[in-house]
């Protein structure tokens, strides 16, 4: 499977101006993207980074893929996922948002087991809450996803329901495994761990 780090957002909850690139924020002296890639790399083959700015920095951690032209205008994280799906050569992709620096080292294995057992085309994390972008997705869903976006839809959970994605209970994951860094306060809290 290929690894996908979703780093194309505008980080509006972190900074209303949209000027901060959250993936490049430092946690313990390293960019968030580096933390996520370090967690994903042992689980995947190629690593691709969905990023719409600062490609010259993100290229240090993987192949950078901006949103496709036909998906221009900010269409959310599914646009990044759809754009990267067009570029992968593996049958499966494991995606993770750039603001989850503590994602489990067995995420891919556990989601893979679930799709294999249930014959699904996708599986996502259910912990204390749903994490639909911590996702294992069959790459042949690229056209379905692009059609969904071009129809005007944006909601991640609606897309996952439409393709029969399964929720995988990972409440037993290590503490903080799915902690999202969405605000400066979240980053401060994560620094203490």
TrEMBL record:
Highest rank taxon of the organism: Bacteria
InterPro entries: MobA-like_NTP_Trfase, Molybde_CF_guanTrfase, Nucleotide-diphossugar_trans
MF term (GO), any: molybdenum cofactor guanylyltransferase activity
Cofactor list: Mg(2+)
CDD domains: MobA
EC numbers for this chain: 2.7.7.77
Assigned keywords, A-Z: Cytoplasm, GTP-binding, Magnesium, Metal-binding, Molybdenum cofactor biosynthesis, Nucleotide-binding, Nucleotidyltransferase, Transferase
Sites where the protein binds GTP: 6-8, 22, 67, 99
Uppermost EC category: transferase
Domain MobA-like NTP transferase, first and last residues per copy: 3-158
PANTHER family found in the cross-reference section: MOLYBDENUM COFACTOR GUANYLYLTRANSFERASE (PTHR19136)
Function comment: Transfers a GMP moiety from GTP to Mo-molybdopterin (Mo-MPT) cofactor (Moco or molybdenum cofactor) to form Mo-molybdopterin guanine dinucleotide (Mo-MGD) cofactor.
Record note on domains: The N-terminal domain determines nucleotide recognition and specific binding, while the C-terminal domain determines the specific binding to the target protein.
Quaternary structure annotation from Swiss-Prot or TrEMBL: Monomer.
Sequence similarity: Belongs to the MobA family.
Name of the protein this chain belongs to: Molybdenum cofactor guanylyltransferase
The organism of origin for this protein: Alcaligenes ammonioxydans
Phylogenetic classification of the source organism: Bacteria, Pseudomonadati, Pseudomonadota, Betaproteobacteria, Burkholderiales
């Amino acid at each position: 499977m290929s690894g996908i780090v979703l780093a194309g957002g505008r980080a509006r909850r972190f900074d209303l101006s949209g000027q901060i690139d959250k993936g490049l924020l430092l946690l313990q002296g390293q960019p968030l993207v580096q933390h996520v890639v370090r967690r994903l790399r042992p689980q995947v083959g190629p690593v691709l980074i969905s990023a719409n700015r600062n490609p010259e920095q993100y290229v240090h951690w993987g192949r950078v893929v901006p949103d496709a032209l036909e998906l221009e205008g900010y269409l959310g994280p599914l646009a990044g996922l759809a754009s990267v799906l067009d570029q992968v050569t593996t049958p499966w992709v494991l995606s993770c948002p750039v603001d989850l620096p503590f994602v489990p080292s067995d995420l891919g294995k556990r989601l893979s087991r679930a799709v294999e057992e249930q014959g699904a085309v996708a599986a996502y994390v259910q912990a204390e809450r749903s994490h639909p972008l911590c996702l294992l997705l069959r790459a042949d869903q690229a056209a379905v996803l692009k059609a969904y976006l071009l129809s005007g839809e944006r909601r991640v959970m609606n897309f996952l329901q439409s393709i029969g994605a399964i929720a995988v209970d990972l409440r037993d994951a290590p503490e903080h495994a799915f902690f999202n860094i969405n605000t400066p306060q979240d980053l401060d809290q994560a620094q203490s761990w």
